[in-house]
Each structure stands twice: as C-alpha cells, then as structure tokens.
C-alpha cells in the first residue's frame, strides 16, 4: 500500500522544483535556433544546482522515476512526475505550466539528439545485424595517402564514419591529398553514408623549449650481444654504404670514424687500441676490411668522445664523428627545475666536485609571461604527466619548481613536450594565428573543425567569426574540452555552440586527465556526458581508446571496459595504429553488445542469454 504521507511530502518537493524549473522559461528567446535545447540546458543546470538525492530516494521508494535519466527532457519528466503523484493522491490540481514541457517529451528529445548527431556524423543507424549506433572516427597517419590511399579505402570499407586530420602534423598539401581520397570514396555513397572530414586545430598547447646541444660520448660495446663495430675513415664518413645496414641481424653495429692514416694500417685479425673518455683501454679485433669500411669486435664497453685516443702501432689518432646532441636532463624526485621563457636553451643541473648543485636544471616554456599566471604551491605537469612539479618560488619571469613525480631512476625532460598548469588560471585564446591559417587551407573540403583547448564562449565566437567571414557557416564546430577552465565554463560554451547550426563536444581525455587529476577523470567525463545530453549536443569520446590494441593487436582488460563506456557517446575516436582494421572490428563488436543492453545512460531489459 502506498504511503500517503510520503506521497504528499514528495509532491510538495516536486512542486517546488517545478516552480524553479519553469521560472527560467521567460529568459530564453523563443526565436533562438535551438530554443528547446537551450532551455532544457538551463533546466538541467537548475536541477543540478542543489543536492536532490533525498528527493530521489523518496521517488525510488515510490517506484517512480528518480530523475537520474531525465537530463535530455527535464521539464517533461518533472511535470509528468507531478501529475502522476497528484493523480494518485486524487488532488486533481496538476496541469502543465508550459507548452514546452509537453513539446520536449522523451521521444522528441531522443529525436532531437539523434538529428544533431546525424548532422555531424551522418545517418548511422542500427540494423538487424548490428545494434551499434555510436559513430567511429579514426585519426589519419602521415602515410595515409601511400599506395593511392589504400589505408583510407580499407578503413572506409570496415565502417569508419569520419576521418580526423590533425594539423599538428604534416602540411596543407598532404591534408588536401587525404581529403581528395575521401572525396573519391564518397562519390559512390549516398548522402547519408558520406564519410565526414574533421580537421583538428593544434591550438595553443604550451610546450617545453629547446635544450642545448653538447657533444655526448658514444657508447660502444654496450653488452655481450652488441660488440660489433663498423669503422670508417674520414674520406668515407659522408658516404656510408647502405649495405652496412644489413651486416647483422642484431641491432645496428656501433659506427666510428677515424683518421684515414690509421685506417690504412688496419689488417684482418689485427687489433686497434682505444683509450676512452674515462681512460679505459679496449681493443677492437678487425674481422674484415675494404676500401669503404672495416668490421670488428670490441672486448669491453667504452665511452668515446673528442678526448678519446686511437692507437695502431705507433700512430695515434682521434674519433672524428662525435656530434652534438641535446643534453640529457634527468629529473629525480626532489630535484629542482627552473622554468623560464624566451630563447635560452634548456640545460641539466651543474654540480661541484662534492656533487652539490651549484646551478639548477633549466627549461624554457613556449608561453610568454607564464610566471604571472602561476602561484607558489601550484602543480605543474610535463610530458603527459610523466614529470610532476610544485612551484616553490618565483622571481621575475623564472619559476622554480620541486620535482614531485618522476621515475625512481629519474625521468628525462625532453624538448617540445606539453606543459600543463592544472591549478593555474592560464587563459589564452584557443584560436592561434597558425590555426587561422590552417583553417583557410582546409576550408574548401572540411566538414567540421575541432577547436583545441577551448576554454570559453569567446573561443567559440572567434572560430565562428572566422568561418562567417569566409562564407562557411555550414562547417560544424567541435570544442575540445581538455582544461579545467573548459570544464568550468561548459554552460557558456554549450550555449554558444547552440547558436551555431552544427556543433559537438570532444572529451579530449589526454590533457584533461592531467588538468583535472587522473583520479577525477571518471567523474568529470561522466559530468560532461550529462551536460551535453541536456543540451542535445553530440559527444566525441577521445584519447587512448583501445590504444594497446591499435599498437600491438592485444587490448588490455581495462581498455575493453573503457571502450564499452564510449558507447554512451555519439562518436568514439581511435588514434593512429598499425592494427586499426582489427581494432575497428573489436570496437564494433563491443558497441553492438553494449547497445543491445543500454541506450545512452538507460539500461535495457533485453532477454539475458548468459545463463
């Protein structure tokens, strides 16, 4: 028997919530192109503005909808609940307070979301053979046009709905060549099954600067299986024969270049004496010699640099092929690193004779003025989170950091690696000058443009204005959410997207995980799915989806579960990999299974066949 008191208290709370929801209606322009979606987004924000869990428990106890699946049709769900409880209590006071509630029913909301998705990815529909409805996007590698685009043709045949061209790599000529192949494929397809082209702008990714080059000793004779050495003379060092590449089935032999005067003295089975940078002696036994190069085996591991000496009988020589390389900057936990700006090259820490640091390691940052945005105590991450730092001091344009995360034996700091400032409010325009130029170079063939590091509605407006100026308001806009600011500003970003004919959101989980914290990513990506559902804006699930499978043809257990989760989105993006064809087959199978038992965030009560 129903608890009348529980029904009455629940009706009161639903009535109050209903008043809150409908109070916003007059604030939205009914002439807005996506009026219903915009209004529903605002309803959702009100719904989630307070803790509603106690109300949900009451609804659950009454076997009524607890509103956890109402995000795409908030007003209709709340209004329906009110009428249901009112009818049970026999009050007969319920009436719909807005035409909007009856217009955006569950059925209409699903239809609206599906229509927006089709605008981006085409008319992907489930069939009697597959229940998969999530579109599949694949990033094209640089060699995609090889063999007349065989890879692109193969990917199209196995069911790719969209191709991603990443402007962070290659150039406009190659992007156009990729697009031409896709256009050729589309000539034999109907309008609904056309493969879409998404162009991904590089955006203002903050990166590490150059590292100074120094002459680094060459390691020769690294271990028992790598004792082979190829010796060239000074006259042949620029014309090393390609035939030497196949001399051994092991790793390529070490190669050294010596004075021709000494080279002429080499004989089969004779020995060449070496004194390395650490004054260690070693001998290379010559096993073959010709006019171009000699081959031999060294008896121990040595490090060769400019100071190393070579002896053959009474003749002394030097190593000639010592070239400059980027200095190794190995950071360990508790080390200090100074981050600056400008053209000053990075360098490793300098130690005195007692191994005390006299000069901290240094690296420059591509973002000029970054010190103004960073405060003491804030976290910084480099190279996809491989190196973690904490700011301990600031002086002018220099930021001194303490290493908080690194491998036990140290992590190498490299050039051109991404830097993330998750605790800092670093606001920079998402659309760079380079991005603007790239947009113009692809504008004739692109279907949709992905805006990297979108953090505000202004970022969306900047891209919209560029497209308007060039008469391409038909091109879709996808905002890539990969910063904390982007997450915080999602309502305004979505509202700006809803003022454009075609739009979507990419959950770019690479930088996003670093920005929000790996431990918080699951919560954040769920929240992004929910708010986009409320706005009826399609979502692209991206970054490291089935990555092991793509690279090695063997998926991890965890990424199978992650791929299953991607079925909640309207599209899932795969990156580049040697086993893309096999991976697509596995992904389609996973999506088919998941869409057989769920739709978006709703569980389907299909017949269970496991037992």
Structure description:
The chain is of the alpha/beta class. It has four domains: 4-104, no CATH class; 129-204 and 428-597, TIM Barrel; 213-325, M1 Pyruvate Kinase, Domain 3 (Beta Barrel); 327-415, PK beta-barrel domain-like (M1 Pyruvate Kinase, Domain 3, Beta Barrel), CATH 2.40.33. The protein is built from 18 helices and 31 strands. The protein has an eight-stranded parallel beta barrel, surrounded by five helices. The protein has a seven-stranded mixed beta sheet with strand order 7-6-10-9-8-12-13. α8 (172-186) links the parallel β2 (162-166) and β3. α1 (4-22) crosses α2, α7 crosses α8 and α11 packs parallel to α13. The longest helix is centred in the N-terminal third of the chain and has 19 residues, at 4-22. The protein is elongated. The two termini are 34 Å apart. Residues 241-250 have low confidence and may be disordered.
